[in-house]
């Protein structure tokens, strides 16, 4: 059973009198342990696809199975549960709580599944150690560099041992050196067995993945497996 | 477990916005303070009246020419009634087996002097020596007069605290003389201070003298004669009242088909009556002071709306990490509840202090009342819930995608 399976996934927005088909009949599967980049220009529907895969939104039509669970018909509470247990988000703008320490930010997903305080702190410390921030736990986001902030966000995504790490333009707000560091970190996480999906419009970022799904006008335009020879220079 | 963590999140958010939180807190505190001051003061007043009346004891009742007047017709009927007279006393004593003690009561106002100090319009009260067995007269110092002193028309006086305060500043009054309208009386006892429940007539501005002595100086009492009667026990109270009613009707020749031309009153009846006539007044005061609570509630709602809008992104982040609607709802409700409940508790304490010092100005004491505390806590909790629920629901229902992209 694949980790992700979509059948004719469609999303239509009603804008005034007009129907905008953001996504049309997307059918695909992603296996556990894959490293996939979803590419496409802005307006292509890749964000819509990411929102659906990330269980932030529900499709207008079609089916979506995550870990054999039919997510496409779940209500708000069930979706929140799936987001909490199955998905770790990494956002372009980091989306950390500005007033909370790195440690508290990483603890957040654990609060909502009722993990006891002590376990929560142990798990959060472990996740921060994995991203080499063990000496920055008590710093607030404003006291961290962009790269460090994104590492905190990655630690937060990891802390619950999710089935899927979903990164939306994870290097969009970083300089090229830091971007490369973050991509190396994601590559490492993939090597350790995590399933990773990156949404991006940058080739440089996408080439780290093993498979690229190109989205155009709300449809999958190309599904391409990257050969090792194309991944030269990638660590 | 989750609730505890959510509470901490709410608390931290309030601490992070100290100025805003304290202004909101202040709004609620002022509202609760004003309501609590009014409730405590009113309770204190009614409590003082009830305490005064309870000094009469539960087995005591009054016989009066006029009763409690609630309408003009009643007044016009009562004003035509014959006065009570002193001969009735013997009939009641002999004819009412369930009556334990009986005393006539009358009074007037007079000038009380000692040396150059004088008090005008002192309430001179006349009763038999057994008054002390009927009414719980609280003796601070000395004693009440005896039936021997009454029998021999002794000029002895049992004085209220106001008389002691004004005429005997720094002097022990016992055994000293005072003049009531230029007749000399010896002070034999002083009453405990009682204060003035309604800030008007001072309850300590009186002199008790034996009934016989009173008649010698002021003559036979006319319209202002009444009786206080103590039944043998609380259970016998109604029987005693019935016996007195029968005696008085026959003594005053009231035809069987006519109503009584006198009134029998118990302390409970008087208290009920007072409660009834002051009810609208009390509710009005509480209602007016509650306006400030509504204003406080609006402040809470306004601040919570601002807070939700400002933290839209935070809500989006929390939702993307798995927070359910109820988690967000509870987080924001906790915030408004923490504000209103702490404001409420401070308001109760402050209201009590203000009421206590206000009542102190009119020589009255109040004690913390369960009613005031319970209503204070529930009112502030209610405001937190009512005015906090809409902003909290608004936060809980935010769409995570829109909230995350909110700038």
Explain how this protein is built.
Chain A is an alpha/beta fold and 235 residues long. Chain A has one domain (32-58, 75-231): P-loop containing nucleotide triphosphate hydrolases (Rossmann fold), CATH 3.40.50. Chain A has seven helices and ten strands. In chain A, strands 6-7-8-3-9-10 form a six-stranded mixed sheet, sandwiched between helices. In chain A, strands 2-1-4-5 form a four-stranded antiparallel sheet, with helices on one face. In chain A, helix 3 packs across helix 4 (117-130), helix 4 crosses helix 5 (146-158) and helix 5 (146-158) runs parallel beside helix 6 (176-191). The longest helix of chain A has 16 residues, at 176-191. Chain A starts with a strand and ends in a 10-residue tail after the last strand. The mean pLDDT of chain A is 91. Chain B has two domains: 2-52 and 273-404, no CATH class; 100-232, no CATH class. The interface between A and B is medium-sized, with 26 and 24 residues.
């Amino acid at each position: 059973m694949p980790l992700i399976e979509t059948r004719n996934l469609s999303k239509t927005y009603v804008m005034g009198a007009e129907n905008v088909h953001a996504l049309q009949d997307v059918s695909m599967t992603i296996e556990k342990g894959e490293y996939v980049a979803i590419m496409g220009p802005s307006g292509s529907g890749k964000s819509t696809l990411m929102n659906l895969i990330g269980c932030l939104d529900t499709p207008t039509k079609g089916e979506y199975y995550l870990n054999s669970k039919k997510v496409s018909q779940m209500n708000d509470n069930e979706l929140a549960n799936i987001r909490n247990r199955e998905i770790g988000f990494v956002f372009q703008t980091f989306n950390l709580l500005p007033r909370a320490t790195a440690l508290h930010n990483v603890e957040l997903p654990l609060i909502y599944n009722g993990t006891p305080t002590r376990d929560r702190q142990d798990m959060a410390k472990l996740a921060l150690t994995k991203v080499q921030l063990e000496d920055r736990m008590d710093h607030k986001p404003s006291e961290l560099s962009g790269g460090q902030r994104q590492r905190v966000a990655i630690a937060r995504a990891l802390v619950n041992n999710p089935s899927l790490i979903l990164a939306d333009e994870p290097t969009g707000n970083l300089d090229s050196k830091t971007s490369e560091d973050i991509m190396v970190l994601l590559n490492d996480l993939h090597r350790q067995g995590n399933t990773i999906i990156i949404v991006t419009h940058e080739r440089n970022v996408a080439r780290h993945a093993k498979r690229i799904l190109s989205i155009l006008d709300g449809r999958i335009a190309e599904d391409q497996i990257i050969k090792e020879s194309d991944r030269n220079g990638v660590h | 477990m989750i609730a505890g963590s959510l509470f901490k999140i709410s608390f931290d958010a309030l601490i992070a916005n100290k100025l805003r939180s304290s202004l909101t807190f202040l709004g609620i505190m002022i509202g609760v303070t004003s309501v609590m001051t009014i409730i405590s003061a009113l309770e204190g007043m009614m409590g003082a009246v009830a305490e005064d009346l309870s000094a009469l004891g539960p087995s005591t009742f009054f016989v009066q020419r006029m009763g409690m007047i609630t309408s003009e017709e009643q007044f016009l009927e009562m004003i035509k009634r014959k006065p009570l007279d002193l001969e009735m006393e013997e009939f009641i004593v002999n004819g009412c087996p369930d009556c334990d003690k009986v005393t006539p009561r009358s009074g007037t106002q007079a000038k009380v002097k000692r040396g150059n100090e004088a008090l005008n319009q002192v309430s001179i009260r006349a009763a038999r020596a057994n008054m002390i067995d009927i009414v719980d007269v609280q003796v601070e110092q000395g004693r009440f007069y005896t039936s021997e002193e009454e029998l021999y028309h002794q000029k002895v006086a049992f004085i209220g605290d106001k008389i002691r305060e004004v005429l005997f500043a720094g002097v022990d009054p016992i055994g000293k003389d005072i003049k009531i309208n230029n007749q000399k009386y010896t002070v034999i006892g002083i009453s405990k201070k009682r204060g003035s429940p309604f800030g008007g007539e001072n309850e300590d501005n009186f002199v008790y003298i034996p009934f016989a002595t009173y008649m010698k100086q002021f003559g036979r009492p006319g319209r202002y004669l009444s009786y206080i009667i103590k039944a043998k026990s609380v259970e016998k109270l109604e029987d005693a009242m019935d016996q007195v009613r029968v005696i008085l009707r026959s003594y005053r020749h009231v035809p069987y088909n006519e109503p009584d031309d006198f009134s029998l009153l118990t302390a409970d009846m008087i208290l009920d009556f007072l409660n009834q006539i002051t009810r609208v007044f009390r509710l009005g005061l509480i209602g007016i002071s509650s306006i400030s609570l509504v204003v406080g509630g609006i402040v809470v709602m306004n601040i919570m709306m601002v807070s939700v809008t400002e933290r839209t992104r935070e809500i989006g982040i929390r939702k993307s990490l798995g927070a359910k609607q109820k988690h967000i709802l509870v987080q924001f409700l906790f915030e408004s509840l923490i504000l209103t409940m702490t404001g409420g508790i401070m308001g109760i304490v402050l209201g009590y202090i203000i009421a206590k010092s206000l009542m102190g100005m009119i020589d009255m004491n109040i004690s913390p009342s369960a009613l005031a505390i319970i209503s204070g806590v529930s009112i502030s909790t209610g405001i937190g819930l009512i005015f906090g629920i809409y902003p909290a629901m608004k936060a809980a229902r935010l769409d995570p995608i829109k909230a995350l992209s909110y700038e």
